[in-house]
Structures are given as structure tokens and as C-alpha cells.
């Protein structure tokens, strides 16, 4: 959907409703490009399903007569296509958003979707790196680049992710004018919500070193992290570098750029940080999201206990 590359089936009123919904998501809800793209793919898949299901391209009026069984048939189709529970849950979220928009704007009223229970996505625990693994990842990032400025860039980016607990998208969306230069910086996260994040001297130093070597000069609105051609750095490039680092350092597949954010939270908790503070630092809307880190930390404590406490030894040891 981002860039208008995802075609949608349907008559002219349905096409207009889809365009208006997309504009509302982008302008009113301030949805990210990633969310717009995901929701767009979900709606394209749904309208493709309806074309087969109804025997022709869907019309806006057709949406009001859909029954719960029709929505369940769509989910069944997506399941047979190999869609996982997390993606299925997002597909339902996309449909609910679109149908709520239609209802609020008096275009389509159909309560049937409310009778369909969305698949519950698996609730996995965050998978952080150990403190020494996180530091080794940062220290080794420069080894994969032949250009000194790109080596400094990768070091600065990974230092920022781990040192401030940022999402990769948050870091890559930063502009030069937002580069960390003091003890606190403002981060714009999901839903354009802003939060204050403390900044370590190591983060300031790493970013300054990178900017001092970067051959592309820009004003305050230029992207902070750029690729080889001077454009805003693509997340795929960062993820590729992390895969190379995993191979170099023997890290598990769970060692991703986002794992550095998980590591930030887990290591703060282990060091005595309280949940409410960590929630604010991460930009979590719900405390229950942050509470997952207590389960990770409890698992670490249990492992230490088993390995070190004499009373944890079995009798045959």
C-alpha cells in the first residue's frame, strides 16, 4: 500500500472508500509506512478472496451483507496459504479498522465481523543478548565494513539501539538535527508519540565520530543514518549486517537489531530498574508489555540458582 503499489479489486465506490481509509490512517492515526503497507496487503488479500467467494469483483454494497461465516472462510483460506497466527491476527485487525471506518462514515454497516474471534498470536518472551554479547556485537560491527565511515555508522547505530533501547525504525527515522548531543533526547515512537530518553556519553561519542567521518553533509532535516549513496539507511541493510555478525560471533538466530532493544530493557531490570521507568524509556503503551521482561529476568535468576546454589544440586552429582 505504501507508494500505491498494492492494487485493490472492487468498484469505484469501494476504491474511493479504501483511499479515504488509507488517508485517515496516515493523517489522523499517524500510522507508520510499515503499518500502512501491512494493512494494505491484508485488504488486498481479503478483496481477492471476495472476488473468488462472490464470483466477481466486490462492490462496496457487498460488504454490508457478509456473514461471520464469510470472514471465517477468509481466515481459513489464509491459514491454508501458510499464514501464521501473528499475521492472521493482524489481518483481522486490518479488517476491523476498515469496517469501523466504513461504519463511522455511514458507508457500510456490518456487525458480523464482531462475531468472529481473531486468532490469538503466540506470546513469546523477549530474547535479549547477554551483556557481553551485546558489547561484543557493538565492538565487532566495524569489522564487517571496508569503508571507515560506514564502519563508524554501524558502530554508532548499534550503540544507539543498545544504549537507548530504541526500535530500529525509530533510530533510522532520526534526522541530523535529532542526533544525541546532550544527556537527554526526544524520540518519536509508534503513533507519533514522543518520549524522553537519557543518553550515555558513549552514545554521543559514537554518533559524533560517525558524523565526523560521513562524506554526506546535510542540514538538520537530512537523515542521520545514510547508506552508501547518501539516502536514508534501509532497515534491510542493518538486518543483513546483523546476520553477518551472528555468523562471525556465533550468536543465535534471535540476535537481531531488535534484540539490542530487548537487551537494554533486560539489563536495566537486572540492574535494579523499576518497571514503570523502563516502560517509559521503551515507549510501551501498556505495562503488561514491559512486564514480559520480568519473566526473562526470572529465567536468568533460575539459571544462576541452578548452576551455583549448593541446594540445587541433585543427590547423584
UniProtKB/TrEMBL annotation:
Protein name: Tyrosine recombinase XerC
Residues of the Core-binding (CB) domain: 12-103
Family to which this protein belongs: Belongs to the 'phage' integrase family. XerC subfamily.
Signal peptide: none
Superkingdom assignment: Bacteria
Keywords tagged on the record: Cell cycle, Cell division, Chromosome partition, Cytoplasm, DNA integration, DNA recombination, DNA-binding
Domain Tyr recombinase: 124-306
Biological process terms in GO annotation: cell division; chromosome segregation; DNA transposition
Oligomeric and partner information: Forms a cyclic heterotetrameric complex composed of two molecules of XerC and two molecules of XerD.
Main location: cytoplasm
Pfam families: Phage_int_SAM_1, Phage_integrase
Sample GO molecular function, one term: DNA binding
Locations listed in the record: Cytoplasm
InterPro entries: CB, DNA_brk_join_enz, Integrase-like_cat_sf, Integrase_catalytic, Integrase_recombinase_N, Integrase_SAM-like_N, Tyrosine_recombinase_XerC/XerD, Tyrosine_recombinase_XerCD
Function summary: Site-specific tyrosine recombinase, which acts by catalyzing the cutting and rejoining of the recombining DNA molecules. The XerC-XerD complex is essential to convert dimers of the bacterial chromosome into monomers to permit their segregation at cell division. It also contributes to the segregational stability of plasmids.
Residue ranges the record marks as coiled coil: none
Active-site residues annotated for this sequence: 167, 190, 258, 261, 284, 293 (o-(3'-phospho-dna)-tyrosine intermediate)
A Gene Ontology term for the protein's cellular component: cytoplasm
Gene: xerC
Amino acid at each position: 500500500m505504501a507508494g500505491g503499489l498494492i492494487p485493490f479489486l472492487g468498484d469505484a465506490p469501494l476504491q474511493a472508500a479504501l483511499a479515504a481509509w488509507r488517508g485517515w490512517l496516515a493523517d489522523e492515526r499517524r500510522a507508520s509506512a510499515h503499518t500502512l503497507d501491512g494493512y494494505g496487503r491484508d485488504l488486498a488479500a481479503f478483496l481477492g478472496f471476495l472476488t473468488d467467494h462472490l464470483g466477481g469483483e466486490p462492490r462496496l454494497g457487498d460488504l454490508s451483507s457478509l456473514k461471520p461465516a464469510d470472514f471465517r472462510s477468509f481466515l481459513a483460506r489464509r491459514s491454508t496459504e501458510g499464514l501464521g497466527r501473528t499475521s492472521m491476527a493482524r489481518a483481522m485487525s486490518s479488517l476491523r479498522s476498515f469496517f469501523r471506518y466504513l461504519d463511522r462514515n455511514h458507508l457500510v454497516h456490518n456487525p458480523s465481523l464482531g462475531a468472529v474471534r481473531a486468532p490469538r498470536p503466540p506470546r513469546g518472551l523477549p530474547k535479549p543478548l547477554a551483556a557481553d554479547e551485546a558489547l561484543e556485537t557493538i565492538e565487532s560491527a566495524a569489522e564487517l565494513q571496508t569503508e571507515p565511515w560506514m564502519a563508524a555508522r554501524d558502530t554508532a547505530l548499534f550503540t544507539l539501539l543498545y544504549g537507548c533501547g530504541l526500535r530500529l525504525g525509530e533510530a533510522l527515522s532520526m534526522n541530523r538535527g535529532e542526533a544525541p548531543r546532550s544527556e537527554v533526547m526526544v524520540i518519536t515512537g509508534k503513533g507519533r508519540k514522543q518520549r524522553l530518553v537519557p543518553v550515555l556519553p558513549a552514545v554521543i561519542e559514537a554518533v559524533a565520530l560517525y558524523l565526523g567521518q560521513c562524506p554526506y553533509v546535510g542540514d538538520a532535516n537530512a537523515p542521520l543514518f545514510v547508506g552508501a549513496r547518501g539516502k536514508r539507511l534501509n532497515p534491510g541493510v542493518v538486518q543483513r549486517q546483523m546476520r553477518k555478525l551472528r555468523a562471525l560471533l556465533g550468536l543465535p538466530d534471535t540476535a537481531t537489531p531488535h534484540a539490542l532493544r530487548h537487551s537494554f530493557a533486560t539489563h536495566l531490570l537486572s540492574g535494579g530498574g523499576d518497571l514503570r521507568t523502563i516502560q517509559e524509556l521503551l515507549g510501551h503503551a501498556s505495562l503488561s508489555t514491559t512486564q514480559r521482561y520480568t519473566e526473562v529476568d526470572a529465567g536468568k535468576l533460575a539459571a544462576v540458582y541452578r548452576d551455583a546454589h549448593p541446594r540445587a544440586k541433585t543427590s547423584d552429582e
